[in-house]
Amino acid sequence: MLNCRACLWQCVQPFDRPANIQRLRRNGIPLLRQSQQRFQSTDVRKTRTRPHYLTRVEKLSNDRNEPWQNSAVAENQKKRERAALLSSRTDVIASAERRETPNLMKLGKRDTTMSETDWNRRKRELRFLQDPLDLAQFVQAELRKDRVEEMKQLVGYALKVYNDMKKRGQFPDSYTYTILLRGLSINAQNSGVLEKALSVYHSLFAPNSRVTPSIIHTNAALRVCARALDMDALWGIAAKIPERGPAAANATTYNTIINAIRQNMLLARPSGESAEEAAARKERGIMEARRLWEDIAGKWREADLVIDEELVCSMGRLLLLGPRPRDWDDVLSLIEQTMDIPRLVPRLGTPERKEAGFPQLRAPNVPEDYKFDDDHLAPGQPGIRGEEFLPFAGSLAKNLAFVKPENNTLSLIQEACLKIAAPKAAQKYWDMLADQYKITPDVNNLNQQLRNLRQNRASAAAVELLQKDMIGKGVRPPPGTFRIAMSTCVRDKNNHNSLKNGSQILHSMSKVYADVDAKTVGMYADLANTFPLAKGQDLIDALTNLYPFVRNLRVQMGIAAHEQEGAEKRKRRVARLTGEARQEALMALRKVYGVYDRLLMSNLIAEEQKQEFKKERARLSAFILKETQQDRERNVEKKVQNLGRQEEVSPEDFDQHSYLADEAQEGEEQVEPERSSEKRNWRDHASEDSRGSWRTRNVKPADQRKPWESRS
């Protein structure tokens, strides 16, 4: 037998069986009927390893580009998918055309809600997805696409499969519930998702449930409730969380609850709410978060919980929304407790703060009942608030696993110092985190530092930060950064060099952006208009600096390309400003016109020097009037279209001041207006019309008049 090659191959063949017979022998003649075939993918019913599809769901659940964020589809994955389908072997295509593949034979009938075109498209896709792994990856890729209607259908199909599993005795396991709840959480924008998620989650606690609920299921259900802004359902789920065990709360659980409280404070505002009522509502949310942090700190102290920077910063940003200055000050205590970063500002309401010479916070936007933190001094009142954020002392503090600060922490500290008016402490924190913890500031950190400099009226430091720490290091600042820097110069207008600092910010913006920001230009014009120490040369320099930016704004507003000169001629397509951006550019040009007026209507320069500036002002005035008239005509056309008039009404025939006549005739009889086609007949003094004018009406003849001397 061993000498026979065919017999030897028949003996060896069972030991060398391929992993997927159907894939390798797709063109072969099946030996068994379709009902008797058994695929190797069904041999193994259970696996001890972690399923690969669960990790994909976790990545999708924690990804920023999930459907919940209404993000765009990853075009790269779609192209790779199409390229993989087009690069399939020709024999596979031919085989698929000759007969239906096994997965299409099990497809069933077409759903009536799906069109014939979509049905055929799905069948063509499934012909090339014989491998279960390829099919799973294709489903995950389709889930990542932002298709609202298909997402709703997939959610419904997933719940249908879940119910069919229970009817057929295929009980879902823990992974099934995880995928369902996370899939519902990333599609929480659809209606009815919250009820379905609660139904699936509460079924885990049924007496006949074969799955033990874990904290992963709880976090997914809490995420759905938080995104649906249903705090009652959220607290109902949180009440079932045990104190200890595998189902106990972790950092993700507390982070979800804290973010839900913050969202509820910001979004769940009743209509007609007063400032005192809003402060009281925020106070209740802050107290809930404080009680929650006592539980977090206690578990962290006993090593039952691992906290991270995301949780700490979520609690800190919730405190920044509090109605009391004490809540803002407790952010620095929170950082000291969790990250072992010492406070550089004494606590609010302590004698050390008064001895350090810190002034009392003005807090202009805070109600009177919440401004001062001396309520604890009254008899019968509890102690000072913020005890839950005090650092742990003794040997216990040495064994704690402190959180490592990152960029999010740096922004949080800068914002807290801004609200408690501690600019010097903000700079010290900045230097400490940059030097000791090696934190490289990002754009958000630098913007927050600029806001602190603006509060301190440090325009020179703002220019240095913009040029050295951002542009000098290759960071491209957004337009908002230049606005913050320019507003620092406007706030520092009593400084002799504030106008020069603003000019440097304008030149820095021109190096970064080809199209300037209209708001920044308008702020610089405001600075030149309100600069109290301005001399003639200062205004001339300001107008000289503004000249190229005015031309750039005119280009953005749609000026003809042939009006550009020299180096300003660019072979690029400029997007025409529309809507609010157009109005901002027009307002900036009006402010520049005000700078011309201030220079020409003063005695700061000689009359001979004013001629060129008068010409430029006239050109700018003509452009502003032309653009204003065009905008008015566009508004008239929009009004005509909105009224739905059948007859064509030209802008010239439309009376722009008709509202004055309406106000004058209110409550009186409507008089038919004079037609524009009829000419008015003016009378002269020699007219024989007996009506007379205001000078000749009821005048006696000359011989019958009394002399002026005889009139009393």
UniProtKB/TrEMBL annotation:
Regulates mitochondrial small subunit maturation by controlling 15S rRNA 5'-end processing. Localizes to the 5' precursor of the 15S rRNA in a position that is subsequently occupied by mS47 in the mature yeast mtSSU. Uses structure and sequence-specific RNA recognition, binding to a single-stranded region of the precursor and specifically recognizing bases -6 to -1. The exchange of Ccm1 for mS47 is coupled to the irreversible removal of precursor rRNA that is accompanied by conformational changes of the mitoribosomal proteins uS5m and mS26. Belongs to the CCM1 family. It holds the Pfam family PPR_2. Keywords: Repeat. The keyword rRNA-binding does not apply. Residues 634-648, 672-692, 700-712 have a biased composition (Basic and acidic residues). It comes from Didymella heteroderae. Residues 634-712 are annotated as: Disordered. Gene3D superfamilies: Tetratricopeptide repeat domain. InterPro entries: PPR_rpt (IPR002885), TPR-like_helical_dom_sf (IPR011990). This is Uncharacterized protein. Binds to mitochondrial small subunit 15S rRNA. The lineage of its organism: Eukaryota, Fungi, Dikarya, Ascomycota, Pezizomycotina.
